[in-house]
Amino acid sequence: MRFRSSLYVLGVSLLTAMSLLAQDYPKVEVPLGFSFVNVHPNITPITSFNIFGGGGGVVYNFTPILGFKADFMGYTQGNGLKTRLTNAGYTVSGDVQGNLFTYMFGPQFKKHTGRLQPFGEALFGAAHSNTFGNIFNTIHSVSGSSSGNAFAMAFGGGLDFVLGHNVQLRPVEVDYLYTRFSVGGSGGSQNNFRYVGGLNFTFGGAPPVPPTASCSLSPTEILAGAPVTATISTQNFNPKRTITYKWTSTGGKVSGTGTTGTVDTTGMAPGSYTVTATATDEREKKNNVASCNASFTVKQPLPPVVSCSANPTTLAIGQPSTITMSASDPQGWPLTYSWTSTGGQLSGSGTSATLTATSADAGNTLTVTGTATNDHNLSSSCTAQVNVPPVEKCTMIEDWGECTFEKNPKKPWRVDNDCKDTLDKLSLRLQQMPNGRLNIVGFTNQEESVNVQTLGAQRSVNVKYYLTTDGPNKVDASRIQPRQGEAKGQATHFYFVPEGKLCGGQLEEGTVVDESQVQPQSRTAPTPTKKHKKAPAAAPPAQ
User: Fold this and answer.
1) How many domains does the chain have?
2) Three-state DSSP class for 135?
3) Do 293 and 316 fall within a single domain?
4) What is the residue-wise DSSP string for 247-284?
5) Cis ω before 45 (30° cut-off from 0)
6) Which of 71, 216, 252, 282 is deepest in the core (most CB within 10 A)?
7) Phi and psi of 335, rounded to 5°?
């Protein structure tokens, strides 16, 4: 009955243990196994005998080392004891059997890491047995109570070998077992040896922490061709084991068999790439692999950054301008420089050039282009513009001759035959000039200017009339300007004025004639008739 009670206690303890939450170490242990005790009954002549049985217990661990153990064991004795008594000369009627139950409690000290986990214990409690009474009764041929209770304690230890997460093999547990049973009405001590072997079941505690790994790269941004160094750091692997490493990458060539790998990025296109490292414990069957990855970026190489300026920005012919380039390379690569221009004379090298304007550049805007190129053949250009104003051209008034009006005192304004020949040639010459105009300046002599103030204007208007109307080579009237000059003689003088600005402060001679006030006269117009005054009547004779 008591043995079944012990099994009930073990079952309840087992269920309780299974309900506990996970911890960093087993919260509850339930050892079960076979046991035998070499009993020293302290009764002459029986010095020792063996009893066999088994049982188990429950250990509640407060810390990774210290736990509290409840130990329950039960043993029975067969016919071996009867044989020992018979051989000693005692008359034995029937079987001499007995049992032993121990109920002990106390601290357990155990190492909960690694596969081999030793432990020690100190247990105190009680024992119940009828074996000692049965021996005494047989030896002394008396009949009495054959059962009794006594104080019990055990000191010892053992070793557990981890088979799995929740199962351990207990090959050996040995204890000094002390009991104190009263035999024949007097006290006694029994110094016994106990052996236990079996299995130890563990509950609670965290599951094995899987190994992990973390990866890092340096640098994380590079230009193609620059190396990338990768490093893996692992956690929760067995530090006594050799870990193997494998490196892979989505781009480039990665090398390395240890915790450090190197990526060769030669020829890689710009973009993002991932390096993966895998750590493996070859001796471990489960939870033996951890991997990690990290990314790096191959940057697009950037061309140089340039800007250009000109000083001065406006040039006269023959004047120089200094063109300056400010250039830098984002990667710090060395630069070379070159210059071109749309005109002028360009010289110089490096970051400075000189542009000199030539006469062919007048009126144009010249563009100077500077180019900076790095040693990876990436280039950038900048421009600076220089304005060359047009050269102001001036014109010279040309003297084309004159006509005189001295031969016809009756018609001092008339274009005579000599003047006609001059004008016919002059009209042909004027028609050959696509631009410009002809100034006709009419002059008078001192006497004429006193008597007839507009005679010079009349002469110039009549010459225009011939050139545009009477003459054979008619000229566009808009290209002829009659003008009245000073008192220089009886003539009209011809001045051709080209288009453009007059050079050297030249002035056009005379004043413009108001042709609405001076009417032209043809050279063929009749000479006006001179009216003769009547002679005065003769005076009557004097009377």
Assistant:
1) 4
2) helix
3) no
4) EEESSSEEE-SSSEEEEE-TTPPSEEEEEEEEEEETT-
5) yes
6) 71
7) -120, 150
